[in-house]
Design goal:
With 332 residues, this protein is α/β, with parallel strands linked by helices. Helices cover 19% and strands 24% of the residues.
């Protein structure tokens, strides 16, 4: 189950109380103060973990509370600090407070983000001894740990995003080109969730590709599944716009314009990303007919490369991804 949003409660551990104690020592009032300080409470951290690919585990648990610090002891012994709590989340997780204010994001393996600081341990009575008060009989209470609700949002980390109308063939293309195995809905509509795949384009050359659920007209307004997954395109550097060349429902140009409208309505930044057009299912048409459609589309959109491919037969797939890799790293 793919979960890309979660609301969780995090609380740092409370600090341990300071201790009131006295040692027995001749000529020292009450034997002298020797109460130790309480330990600090543990803090709560989010940690980027590449083995996580969904927010499902944190969404299920909801409450995350770090360990409290221990009370200080006699003989000036400090209490043990509470253990920090580390919550693994997928790379690409964005963190906000309940008002939507940005707290941070986790993009690299092992990267940590503090979300709830533990409380400070209270001072024992030894810390309050002065020349005029050599036997204080009070200590400090430990501080409360920070607590809050935070909002987590996952944005997939991929170099290339596959976009297109439902049934354009994105899942088939990614399955054929990489080791990904997208789950397909049991109705002719769309992939169930975004899927990442690694496409090998040559020796030691690879690109990370995200298969994004099919968009429909009105997706940016919340229609269908599109608005929930458009965010995953935000981090990609390049879009491959897949179009069903043999669709009986819409012409390649109409299909292209529908998706372009959704991207532009959702985010002008996304709409400005580099884009390659791939006309899929060309094996269902004659070579001459497919080439004629490709030329006609290229004439309309201009300045964008148009590829004829078949995800099922593999025709043109290697050339498409080799071009994408070359385009991505042309400046390197």
């Amino acid at each position: 189950m793919f979960v890309d949003e979660a609301r969780i409660y995090v609380k740092g551990g409370d600090g341990g109380d300071g201790c009131v104690a006295f040692r027995r020592e001749k000529f020292v009032p009450f034997g002298g103060p020797d109460g130790g300080d309480g330990g600090d409470g543990g803090s709560v951290y989010l940690v980027a973990d590449s083995s996580e690919n969904t927010l499902l585990s944190v969404a299920r648990k909801v409450h995350f509370i770090a360990e409290n610090g221990k009370r200080g002891g006699s003989k000036s012994q400090s209490g043990k600090g509470g253990a920090d709590l580390f919550i693994p989340v997928p790379l690409g997780t964005v963190v906000r407070d309940e008002d939507g204010n940005f707290i941070g994001e986790l993009l690299k393996e092992g990267e940590r983000l503090l979300v709830a600081r533990g409380g400070k341990g209270g001072r024992g009575n030894k810390a309050f001894a002065t020349a005029t008060n050599r036997a204080p009989n009070y200590a400090e209470d430990g501080g409360a740990g920070e607590e809050k609700w935070v909002l987590l949002e996952l944005k997939l980390l991929a170099e290339v995003g596959l976009v297109g109308l439902p049934n354009a063939g994105k899942s088939t293309l990614l399955s054929a080109a990489s080791n990904a195995h997208p789950r397909i809905a049991d109705y002719p509509f769309t992939t169930k969730s975004p899927v990442l795949g690694i496409v090998e384009v040559g020796r030691f050359q690879r690109i990370v590709v995200a298969d994004l659920p099919g968009l429909i007209e009105g997706a940016h307004k919340g229609k269908g599944l599109g608005d929930r997954f458009l965010r995953h395109i935000e981090r990609t550097k390049l879009l491959i716009h897949l179009i069903d060349i043999a669709s009986p429902i819409s012409s390649p140009l109409d299909a292209y314009r529908i998706i372009r409208k959704e991207l532009e309505s959702y985010s002008p930044v996304i709409a400005r990303k580099e884009e390659i057009i791939a006309l899929n299912k060309c094996d269902l048409l004659s070579t001459l007919e497919a080439q004629k459609i490709a030329r006609s589309l290229k004439k309309e959109i201009q300045k964008k490369e148009v590829f004829l491919i078949s995800a099922v037969s593999g025709k043109g797939v290697k050339e498409l991804f080799r071009y994408a890799h070359k385009h991505l790293y042309a400046s390197h």
